[in-house]
């Protein structure tokens, strides 16, 4: 499938990709436009995940590129970011589903799992044979997860198994996942450990969170763990502290930055289309100065954010990306996304609050991306610590 640079990629960052990468992006874009875009507004309105799209989505190889065990060809972090962008410019809920599957679930196993665990679980997740979720956030622990985890893991001295007890909240995919990565504190040592937990394990319960105004198609859940018994072989063998958890989040924060650019582009592209079709005062509103000003400001935000995402991904491939680099990208790009979707929605007037024109969905979904994977404030403090050498978290 030929790949054409998006008009919203104003400085043509996609030109840095290889032919294989561009061809893969073209296949994904064509599939999303044909099979996914027509169903996402209905799924969003009903607050239901469109499960019928999953076989075709996984057939595009969208979840295979991050790890050598599953990647069909060698690829760059910029390419993987562009994948997240393409998904998000069509629908943030579908992008979030794949971000949980590929970024958080596979990321936890890829970063913290043993060679045997990687070989067993990564191919199953990449193909969609099983669905994953990532359980870190708790009802009373979000931004302070490094210190405030209340879920415990207690070692059974007789069997060597682990017993997990606690609660998790806001866990995406968890109402239908086959496994969930659960992060818990060792009751004896206080160390943060990770576990691959099959969701049919006795004592594991997931309940859908209702009433959301953002990412409505994502199935977030409250999870209750009551003496959930997990064998030692399902403990992530290289997860021994929150530093290991943070290594996973470092990867996915940059992915959220890319997704936020995709959401901004989705809203911007909808606004450009609408401005050319909507006639007021005898001509398309695209011919009015104030509309062109709003569109120019949108494109400026998109271009600046895209440049930041490209650079932080290049740093990842070079092995020089640090926590503060991905934190700054996440904080900055989601803030610019929030401005951009508001300006884009403004162009629609009253039509901007109905799903028919897509922009209302992007406008609402931006709020979730702005908050998850570390709030703007927490990421600002990570950057502030790098600037000053002083930690100001509490």
Automatic annotation (TrEMBL):
Cofactors: FAD
Keyword rRNA-binding: no
Record-linked InterPro entries: ACX4-like (IPR045008), Acyl-CoA_DH_CS (IPR006089), Acyl-CoA_Oxase/DH_mid-dom (IPR006091), Acyl-CoA_Oxase/DH_mid-dom_sf (IPR046373), AcylCo_DH-like_C (IPR036250), AcylCo_DH/oxidase_C (IPR009075), AcylCoA_DH/ox_N (IPR013786), AcylCoA_DH/ox_N_sf (IPR037069)
Residue span, Acyl-CoA dehydrogenase/oxidase N-terminal domain: 18-129
Keyword Membrane recorded: no
GO BP terms, alphabetized: fatty acid beta-oxidation
Keywords from the UniProt entry: FAD, Flavoprotein, Oxidoreductase
Acyl-CoA dehydrogenase/oxidase C-terminal domain mapped to chain residues: 247-387
An annotated Gene Ontology molecular function: flavin adenine dinucleotide binding
Domain (Acyl-CoA oxidase/dehydrogenase middle) ranges: 133-228
Superkingdom of source: Bacteria
Family that this chain belongs to: Belongs to the acyl-CoA dehydrogenase family.
Official protein name in the record: Glutaryl-CoA dehydrogenase
Organism the protein comes from: Okibacterium fritillariae
